Amino acid sequence: MTDGPISSNGCEVGPVSGRSDLRAFQRLPRQLRRRQAGWVEPLKLLEGELLKRHRHPFYEGGSGAEAEFFLARDRTGRVIGRIAGIVNRRYDAHVAERDGHNHSPGFFGFFDCVDSPAVASALVGAAKDWLRGQGRREMLGPASPSETYDYGLLVEGLDQPHRFLCVHQPSYYARLLEQAGLEKAKDLLGLTMDMQDPDTLRLLERFFKLSKAADDRLPGKIIIRAPDIKNFDAEVRTICGVFNEALGRLWSHCPISEQEFGHIIWSLRHIAIPDAVLIAENHGEPVGVVLTVPDLNEVIRRLRLRVSWLEPLELLCRAKLWRPKCVRTLVLGVKPGHERSLVVPAIVGRLGRTLTQRGVRYVDAHLVLEDNSSIMTPLLRYGFKPNRRYRIYRSAL
């Protein structure tokens, strides 16, 4: 286990200690990436919350997950890199139930670094040492801190717009991680559908008809509805339950707690599009969910007051006058056994109508496993086209 600083090739790597270090940890991406073409700095409020290990529901006070943050400094004390080692106990329990063993990997995340193989290797080494001390045999990442948040390293598609809640790292990060001894574990794809493309319009028209057919053939049996905000806690339980069951067998899926899911939905409540968060019920049973949010980066990239409470205030003011051109589907899941039913065209048709009426041009779907044909094939058929590739790396410990 890494208890103190590690010196290597002119840099010193040590655990974050105190508020000053934590502020330096949060500031580093801006210092390194502010001149990177296309990059949009995340909202400080959202990112800052995710680093509060004693408060954020992802960690649940250590019972849900545990993390150790590290900083790399040069000889002058300047911060030149950061990384985190992460143990996700909810993922441990999920792997034990799904695969029947207790050999769950540890994770690394929040990786940022100057273009120096020596510094990157020292950072990766610190995360590895900490995870070994936690009894881990394998390391996966980047997961910052899990699949639900910033996940993967963008290795193809840096020319594409940086979307809200998606990673968009410098191109040299892949080289640094590979030189540090990490190798590909899995690739995930990002896809975009242009709703004004003639082929897409024909496909959408087909789904509108299938959605109507579902209503006509099974009146009252398949119901697509928006959540009841007055029963927020109950609706969170419903959406979270369908989400975890729908994605539970996927390689990358990490179950999310109701508390954490509620925290995410609550934080996005001011930007959610009415009727773009949907629950599908079949004979009264919730069997499908879709959660779509506008690409808030369209607004964030224009912010000027990126300090303290002024940032969210300016964001809310600008957002009131904004008509989004792109949305991102955060969650689209159907319970096992319902993938080929009329539930899918019904929920997609309803979503398509909403987005068309609101003048949305692009719909993004992200983090689809490249070998998951059960999801990839329908998306391609619906008119989505791959334009980004995200990589998860691995290393034995």
Number of helices: 12
N-to-C SSE string, H for helix and E for strand: EEHHEEHEHEEEEHEHEHHEEHHEHEHE
- Tell me the radius of gyration: 21 Å
Give the CATH superfamily of the largest domain. Answer: Gcn5-related N-acetyltransferase (GNAT)
Strand coverage percent: 25-35%
InterPro entries: Acyl_CoA_acyltransferase, BcerS-like
Protein name: N-acetyltransferase domain-containing protein
Organism: marine sediment metagenome
Task: Describe the protein's architecture and organization.
With 397 residues, this protein is an alpha+beta fold. It folds into 2 domains: 6-189, Aminopeptidase, CATH 3.40.630; 192-390, Gcn5-related N-acetyltransferase (GNAT) (Aminopeptidase), CATH 3.40.630.30. It is built from 12 helices and 16 strands. The protein has helices at 18-33, 44-50, 89-99, 117-133, 172-179, 198-217, 232-247, 258-267, 297-300, 310-320, 343-357, 373-382; strands spanning 6-8, 11-15, 65-73, 79-88, 106-113, 138-141, 143-144, 150-151, 153-156, 183-194, 222-225, 277-282, 285-294, 326-334, 362-369, 385-396. Strands 1, 2, 3, 4, 5, 6, 9, 10, 11, 12, 13, 14, 15 and 16 form a 14-stranded mixed beta sheet that branches. Strands 7-8 form a two-stranded antiparallel ribbon. Strand 5 (106-113), helix 4 and strand 6 (138-141) form a beta-alpha-beta unit. The radius of gyration is 21 Å and the shape is globular. The two termini are 12 Å apart. The relative contact order is 0.15. The mean pLDDT is 89. InterPro entries: Acyl_CoA_acyltransferase, BcerS-like. It comes from marine sediment metagenome. This is N-acetyltransferase domain-containing protein.
